[in-house]
Design brief:
Quinone Oxidoreductase, Chain A, domain 1, Rossmann fold, six-stranded parallel beta sheet, globular
Length: 395
């Protein structure tokens, strides 16, 4: 079968030491310190077959290009990849996907009805392959699994015609047929994963909000835009989006943003305090990947506003070290938390329920391509700001 894989050279930077879970020459949890000269290329792979009784074979119908795909394929000036996390190359890319069940093992149970998955059923799949046995998993934190594998990062992903996954990571999206017709259900289904990343960040890790709170979303990539839609439906009275690109700013307004700040032309803190009558915001989502740029403005709002107990959630991935003003968080009783992944805590079924009952985020998809066009569009997204989500649609 046809697949799109990423290859890179294992060349650890000076001073790099293998972690206890790293595998020399193959896998690391610190990708940007190890992998050099990435190349995205087409490849031929065998069509996967059932191995275990809880396996599901999925025919991929739609798979979106994530910022992580872009940053794994993007090299800095010294040739090392931008992506800082868990990686093992070569690997078939792609993790934001949906498709149809082709085959299912006898113990591959569908959580919708507790029966074996039926061929032809529309599903989406988690990207975080948690083990369910380590201490974090048993404590209820699957996104922080000690034996984590990630689809499209450390094991072969969904920029391919077929993929094999465990049933415990699969979620039925048949309910999306209430809103979407034909193959559009798969376009929507491919957005469940990034929507769950946003849900996990602002609701689970960020602690959610109470109706009437104000919130700030910094960055309008797919996760930031999904967070806008989620928080508006959660009762945020003022959703403030910080975004310089006009097309994405307009998209944010359509998804629920009440105000948009252009940080290149306006003072972020000044405008937030103006829009909130001097209060500030209860929750800030850092979804830009530029914490060194945006955190000072967030701290200005927290310090000068009247809102106590604000929470700053960092969801964008970067290995940049950023100083913070501890006094701000101490005096204003503020919090700063990190958010990784999307699994557990009812994130997937709740996001699917939202999408099946009117929360339409499909306009995030601004371009549809074929599987063959994935490599050139991954490269394009390294510099292009005109597109939001580019999605490969397979027959």
């Amino acid at each position: 079968m046809k697949a799109i894989e990423l290859y890179a050279e294992w060349r650890p930077k000076p001073g790099f030491k293998l972690g206890k879970k790293d595998i020399d020459g193959k896998l690391t949890y610190l990708g940007s310190l190890v992998w050099k000269n990435p190349v995205v290329r087409a490849a031929e792979r065998k069509i996967p077959e059932l191995i275990d009784d809880d396996d599901v074979i999925v025919k991929v119908k739609a798979c979106g290009i994530c910022g992580s795909d872009v940053h794994m394929a993007q090299a800095s000036e010294d040739g090392y990849i931008y992506y800082p996390g868990l990686t093992a190359f070569p690997v078939v890319l792609g993790h934001e996907f949906s498709g149809e069940v082709v085959k299912a093992g006898k113990n591959a149970l569908n959580k919708r009805n507790n029966k074996v998955f039926t061929p032809g059923e529309a599903i989406c799949v988690e990207e975080m392959f948690w083990c369910g046995q380590c201490r974090p998993c048993c404590d209820g934190y699957p996104n922080n699994c000690e034996n984590l594998q990630e689809l499209g990062f450390s094991i072969d992903g969904a920029f391919a015609e077929y993929v094999r996954v465990k049933s415990r990571y699969c979620w039925s999206i048949e309910s999306l047929r209430n809103i979407y017709k034909g193959n559009e259900v798969f376009i929507a289904g491919s957005l469940v994963e990034p929507t769950c990343v946003a849900y996990n960040a602002v609701i689970e890790r960020g602690g959610g909000i109470r109706p009437g709170d104000s919130v700030c979303i910094l960055g309008s990539g797919p996760v930031g835009l999904a967070a806008v839609a989620i928080l508006k439906r959660a009762g945020a009275v003022k959703v403030i989006l910080s975004e310089e690109a006009a097309p994405r700013a307009e998209m944010g307004k359509r998804l629920g943003a009440d105000y948009v700040i252009n940080p290149k032309k306006e003072d972020f803190a000044e405008k937030v305090l103006e829009y909130t009558d001097g209060m500030g915001a209860k929750l800030f989502l850092e979804a830009t990947g530029l914490p060194e740029v945006v955190l000072p403005g967030i701290e200005d709002v927290i310090w000068n506003g009247r809102e106590l107990n604000s929470t700053v959630v960092i969801v964008a991935r970067t290995d940049v070290k950023v100083p913070i003003a501890g006094e701000v968080y101490q005096v204003r009783r503020a919090n700063i938390v990190g958010a990784q992944g999307h699994s557990g805590h009812g994130n997937f079924p709740r996001a699917i329920n939202l999408m099946a009952n009117g929360m339409d985020v499909t306009e995030i998809v601004t371009k549809r391509i074929t599987l063959d066009e994935v490599p050139e569009n991954i490269i394009k997204l390294q510099t292009c700001k005109d597109e939001c989500k580019i999605t490969a649609v397979l027959d």
